[in-house]
Amino acid sequence: MVRRNFRFPMFEVFDAPVTSVSCPQRDVTTVAPQALWSLNSPSVFEQAKHLAARVVKSVGTDRAQWPQRLWMLTLGRPITDEEQADAEQLLDQLIKQASVDTTAAALTASPDELKSLEKSEAAALIKLCLAVYNLNEFVFVD
Questions:
Q1: What is the C-alpha to C-alpha distance for residues 113 and 120, in angstroms, rounded to an integer?
Q2: Is residue 12 part of a domain?
């Protein structure tokens, strides 16, 4: 049985520095596996759960305020009206699409703050947090 080291898979995807040689500057690449890693990584999903819990702890169960707080926490700026409308529409779609199987999987070992929501709402908020973690504005420093 081959055992893979899952402790630092991010370093493999995001140009880990080679410590055996000296160089004046690190190589920087942007490739598709980086986006796929952050969308599918269990560790990023776990962080999205904790972010969702922090949002609920801050503003409660009012869905309209979730995107506002989420933008302030992650991007450090107020959400625009267009982004608010898009985020609310995405939340509504995700809530409708949530099935018992996916919500149960999303809420396994969830923080207590998420347990006050309906399972479909909690799963939708977690996925919205995951989407925000993958925004260019969050990932890249300009």
A1: 14
A2: no
Would residue 100 count as lying in a domain? yes
CA 112 to chain centre: 18
Q: Which of 64, 73, 69, 117 is nearest to 91 (CA)?
A: 64
Q: Which domain range does residue 61 map to?
A: 46-136
Q: Beta-carbon neighbour count of residue 67 at 10 Å?
A: 23
pLDDT at 34: 67
Q: What is the mean pLDDT, run by run of 10 residues, along the chain of 142 residues? A: 48 61 64 70 88 96 95 96 97 83 60 87 93 82 65
- Total structural domains within the chain: 1
Domain annotation covers residue 141: no
